[in-house]
Amino acid sequence: MNMEPSISAPVHSTDKVHESKDMDTISLSSSHCQAHDTPHIHKVGIPPKQNLLKEIKATVKETFFADDPLRPFKDQTGSKRFILVMQTIFPILEWGRSYNITKFRGDIIAGLTIASLCIPQDIAYAKLANLDPQYGLYSSFVPPLIYALMGSSRDIAIGPVAVVSLLLGTLLQNEVDSKKEAETYRRLAFTATFFAGITQATLGFFRLGFLIDFLSHAAVVGFMGGAAITIALQQLKGLLGIQVFTKKTDIVSVLHSVFVSAHHGWNWQTIVIGLSFLAFLLFAKYIGKKNKKFFWVPAIAPLISVILSTFFVFITRADKQGVQIVKYIEKGINPSSVKEIYFSGQYLPKGFKIGVVAGMIGLTEAIAIGRTFASMKDYQLDGNKEMVALGTMNIVGSMTSCYVATGSFSRSAVNYMAGCQTAVSNIVMSFIVFLTLQFITPLFKYTPNAILAAIIISAVLGLVDFEAAILIWKIDKFDFIACIGAFFGVVFSSVEIGLLIAVAISFAKILLQVTRPRTAILGNLPGTTVYRNIQQYPGATKVQGVLIVRVDSAIYFSNSNYVKERILRWLVDEEEELKASYQPKIQFLIVEMSPVTDIDTSGIHALEELHKSLQKRDVQLILSNPGPVVINKLHESNFANTIGEDKIFLTVADAVASCCPKLATEV
Amino acid sequence: MNMEPSISAPVHSTDKVHESKDMDTISLSSSHCQAHDTPHIHKVGIPPKQNLLKEIKATVKETFFADDPLRPFKDQTGSKRFILVMQTIFPILEWGRSYNITKFRGDIIAGLTIASLCIPQDIAYAKLANLDPQYGLYSSFVPPLIYALMGSSRDIAIGPVAVVSLLLGTLLQNEVDSKKEAETYRRLAFTATFFAGITQATLGFFRLGFLIDFLSHAAVVGFMGGAAITIALQQLKGLLGIQVFTKKTDIVSVLHSVFVSAHHGWNWQTIVIGLSFLAFLLFAKYIGKKNKKFFWVPAIAPLISVILSTFFVFITRADKQGVQIVKYIEKGINPSSVKEIYFSGQYLPKGFKIGVVAGMIGLTEAIAIGRTFASMKDYQLDGNKEMVALGTMNIVGSMTSCYVATGSFSRSAVNYMAGCQTAVSNIVMSFIVFLTLQFITPLFKYTPNAILAAIIISAVLGLVDFEAAILIWKIDKFDFIACIGAFFGVVFSSVEIGLLIAVAISFAKILLQVTRPRTAILGNLPGTTVYRNIQQYPGATKVQGVLIVRVDSAIYFSNSNYVKERILRWLVDEEEELKASYQPKIQFLIVEMSPVTDIDTSGIHALEELHKSLQKRDVQLILSNPGPVVINKLHESNFANTIGEDKIFLTVADAVASCCPKLATEV
User: B55 CB near a chain A CB, below 8 Å?
Assistant: First the structure.
């Protein structure tokens, strides 16, 4: 496919280089002006002027309805539209119609597997939230059912999770003592759950889902890791049978409690039971990791541990030797808790505040899980719709004695590996939990607390993601600071502080990005008309008498002064260098604006000031390739006229070409 | 300068088009694959790996020491370095050495002019801050002296200003009643001034000056305009001689006060004096605006008004007719107020909070003025050094009975027009204020308050910048929202609310920018190898079977999901369109990454997910022109290997060329 019929005598061996044949003959030296004294056929395009209303509409659409959620409703009428609306709210109506026995086989196996995993976890996690064990089970009964109706993830497993339980427990304990005022504490927990649901549903309904994107992946990794360590350390209480233990969650207080009680507070029977089953659980995990076929081993290991240890305690009556046991779990399904929620009084704002925080963290976890599995199976997940589903599920949950439920990392992974097909696996799990609540809770009486501690430890260790942390270190050092900042914050202080650090560093990163954008000096890649960063391409050569600066960001009020001053500093540096080597001075400054996606009033001011400063130095300002938004604003502010329409070019090469003939005559 | 000796027979009249000669022969139609099946000689450059410490050092330097403040100290030793340090702290040591009589002539005229303007303004502004009139004069005596030693702006006129006075008055009044607890109020004012200075000096010292850039120009225009209207309305009290007046500053309360008192509370003598001198002042302003030569007319008009009206009241004894007068101004220069500052107790945190806010607003005003005049006379202004100077001046001020001083827009403009050469004009002004305090304050006894109100109104009207607002509307609609948001916030609620709105909208804009970056579909400009946004360049043609998307922002956690989903949505839209017109489907998706200046862990994840989704659709992902930071991270995260090194190209044209031969055989 030789497209060069008009070239008779190629002079180079690289004659097929497709860019700028006319430049083949110039040398690699930077001391020659690479002149293309040619008229350029393409001018910088000025997009058609948009109607203001249209512009605002487009912005709002791109911000809030980027995923075009109303698309399927277009060109539909009446009953069809009603069906579509119902299907949108309850996706089960859509996928339910194509549900079949093959899918059900997958779902029932997955459902049974996650049920066996969730029952012991629920009991254990309820303790993290300082609630009685049955509340964990309640939260695995109602919320999964609601989610199955409204959610669109096929793989997520809904229920209480370790981190949210710890967070809720810590925040609630700060307000009310869970021991002394158990009822107030529980009511505040439901209130928080209610507002967590309201927060989630509201964010989804008003399409503000993108707000959770402000918690960066790195910060989440650090936060989760820190929370896992904190949770695991707290389990030393149950695992070692310590009676007197700190209420604080930081590592110093916890280890202090552990060592202070070393001589008189530890219970050896508890330790034996706890450590042996912990070893068993970790071994089961190892097997599951070693061979994916045995994913079910770690999944049922907790239930087996519970059964074995309960039976063991029952026949040995080890509880009389100081081994602490669950003692009592309320039998029967969720009672109503509508009247327990505080809709007024001093606990309303407290519940609201805690609910917002717990709701956001719950969302972050659920959406991250949903997205991960959706991308693995390649189906679309509407984040905002998910939030409405999760929110509704928690609102209903708060009225049926549940506390904040969300998607669980570990159970969702098991669900996926067990071959779940749809959210029916959650229904199956919910049904098993229902049976448990109805019939077998009394059997948990002799379950030793040490087993629950062991189950929590083995579950949360998976949340410490070393590989992710290493990858983050490799890719982005600033991200890594956010990651360890959140981690140390949680471990050495508290979950709230860790969370605060994570959010603060995430924001600092964004602000830094917009305050100190990168700029680069461009040079010509020999033999082409391509101009690139001379730091990245050491072979690129500068053009004599011309300084080409690329600004790598929109020019906004937050960086306009910096950008202006940075460009002037490049000029000063360059001129000093040139002076040192007795070369002619800079006559043209080309600002390559391809990456400048937008400019605001402050940005225009900065350009005007730059232009003035350059005029005083006898340097001509030239712009290259402003985008559609920028060129419009350059015209509307009249800056295009100030520097001259003919000083705005389509490419850097065009701009350089326009400088060079003049240079040639002057130099 | 024909550089094309190797081309024998140009086939086009535009044969001098310098880009891609080899493409001249292909048509304008988009149905042809514009293949350049040539090896490309330049690969994407991978910059040399940087030492981590070096990298961090470079980032810190660019963030905090972007202006390279230590540059002059390099290669200097001993006493020379000491002199340089002293000159850095006290620039007067530097410019003072070349000071001469010519400069002094300019400075003395300018100094006398701004002194005549500042004396009546000081007395009036002190009332805005609910302080006795002498405190305004005090603040025009000490701070300008300190600034003259340490500041580097040559044109700024230092002293109390209207907006800061109003802000301080409002914030202080919220805490302490200025009438009932006058002493506490005054002490709190000094405390706030002290912390305003500390805030300013600290920001400068730690090189955090860029923080004030977060208040956008548009927000400042709106805030200033709103504050000006608020201040002017409040002056109706003095202008109309109303006795009972609201303490609130919002327009509704103020107008209510005015109309309620219409029948019995207005004093006609006051109104006659006030309105006639207001007319005189506005006429003087008009003359000054009409002819720049008469700039001194509006500058001395206030002093003339004061003298005339005082004399008038003195001989007619109008004060006995209900015309309110100043009554008493303390004679003598600033007493020490070191012991009046609250360094402990309940007022410490209040003073701190108010000081931080007032300090930031003062800074914003002073730096804006400094930058404006520096760019007009083309000298460099170090923002951080300025902040240290302004901060020191307010700290010293707080100990010598001054309240927050900063640069005044109106007086600086007069200073500039009167031909000031250096900060000596501030010293001259300060000296005149000193003489006033020492000898003539008793003469102000009969000055009617109505005159002060008229002076304030005529001064602040200049802060309402309609032209700027119109320009903002033209350039950036979002900026305009920030502008009117701040304006209405101040006018209808209070200065704090207006300020809060301004900051909130400014931040929202930054966050929106990083959450919803622009993306564009690129097409080929016929006859070139240039690819541009097809919306901006309707002539650009799409390449068959290839979709080229440009991402116009760094890909960070805050937008990574959006970017991924937006690209996929472009693909879906495009494929639907192609299907509708029975054209072959997309086989290649080129992501043009030139504007992607950085990418973080979340961004890499998003690319990985995009890659997976595309694989499922049988679309090949290709990257074009990643920058130095991005290419490094692509390698470190191993993503470059995942998609294949040979799928990363230097230019879009190269990338398209790589697709086309394959397309040609398959289509």
Answer: yes
